[in-house]
Write a structure and sequence with these properties.
The protein has one domain. The protein contains seven helices and 14 strands. It has helices spanning 5-16, 18-22, 65-75, 208-217, 250-268, 271-274, 285-291, and strands spanning 35-39, 44-54, 87-88, 100-110, 113-122, 134-136, 145-166, 169-175, 184-187, 193-196, 234-237, 240-245, 294-300, 306-312. A hairpin with a 2-residue loop joins strand 7 (145-166) and strand 8.
Length: 314
């Protein structure tokens, strides 16, 4: 994947004008609601209830400028709230995720710590398709063009060390490596354990132990997060802590983060104070109240696989 500065500017200018294009003063920008599902691979997707054409792109390099523009032509009228105020990242993060496009936005800092909201969307189709929905079959160099009704996405809030701008646009960032969480223990042949530095590729690391620490630090349990392993709330993205959201509404997530972010960050950076304590966690009430709004119902997808419909109480 590669975009020129001009191409990035064209896409970002388009995203910056969403409200003027898809909204009037008489219509709430976030009025249109869609159903959220998590499939049997535990990937979240937005079910539009209407079909669009997912364009073909390079199977080796991912989407290019033309395919991204074609995609936005299709998607923005259905779900503008998913892209509100975001900017296109020139390269995927991590870089080997060539089948996705990434968008981002800087969030208000907490004390001196910077945060980014990162949206990734799968451009390679994941949902299975009927023969009648395949408009152009895949080849060795190109992915298929599919008639689809889903948008596979992930939205994360990630702490970062530095944000890189060019011509006022975000073009990259350095992640904040939380070393106290990222020590990866692996048993060797003798049975003793050793600490491995974070030098291996992102997807090769099992973060289950670190994510368990995050769950404990934030007191995430069955009583306040009913979805459990259907969708992991706290994760490790870009070798850093992330909080994941299932609501495809950027302005809502920004508002929610401003309410719950400071206490969450305080907990994460003070793990020793909170692990294995019996405190009442009164200061996490807003966060837990938000978590309790999520519930799931199991269903069968169009392709015949198990999926979960996520309901969020208002």
């Amino acid at each position: 994947m590669g975009f020129s500065i001009h191409e990035i500017g064209q896409i970002n200018d388009r995203l910056a004008n969403l409200k003027s294009i898809y909204n009037t003063k008489d219509i709430d920008f976030n009025k249109k609601k869609h159903s959220i599902y998590v499939d049997n691979l535990h990937c979240a997707y937005l079910e539009l209830g209407e079909t669009y054409i997912l364009p073909s792109c390079s199977s080796m390099n991912g989407p290019d400028y033309i395919s991204v523009q074609e995609y936005l032509d299709q998607i923005l009228p259905f779900a503008p709230m998913l892209f509100d105020g975001l900017q296109l990242l020139p390269e995927p993060r991590p870089k080997k995720e060539i089948g996705k496009i990434f968008f981002t936005k800087e969030l208000p800092s907490i004390e001196s710590q910077k945060f980014l909201l990162v949206l990734s969307i799968d451009f390679f189709y994941l949902g299975g398709a009927k023969a009648s929905d395949i408009l152009n079959k895949s080849t060795q160099s190109l992915t298929a063009s599919i008639k689809a009704s889903r948008i596979y996405f992930k939205i994360s809030v990630v702490p970062v060390q530095e944000i890189f701008y060019k011509r006022g646009r975000i073009v990259g960032f350095d992640s904040l490596e939380m070393k106290e969480l990222l020590e990866y223990k692996k048993s060797n042949e003798t049975g003793s354990s050793r600490i491995l530095p974070i030098t291996v590729m992102f997807d090769d690391i099992d973060f289950q132990a670190q994510e368990s620490l995050l769950q404990k630090a934030l007191n995430i349990q069955d009583s306040n997060w009913k979805l459990g392993k259907i969708y992991t709330l706290a994760g490790m993205d870009f070798l850093s802590f992330s909080l994941r959201f299932l609501i495809p509404d950027i302005s809502f997530i920004e508002k929610k983060w401003s309410e719950i972010g400071p206490e969450i960050w305080n907990r994460i950076t003070s793990l020793e104070r909170y692990i294995d304590t019996n405190s009442s966690d009164q200061d996490l009430n807003k966060f837990h109240s938000f978590l309790r709004q999520h519930r799931a119902e199991s269903e069968m997808s169009v392709s015949g696989n198990l999926c979960w419909k996520i309901e969020i109480d208002s």
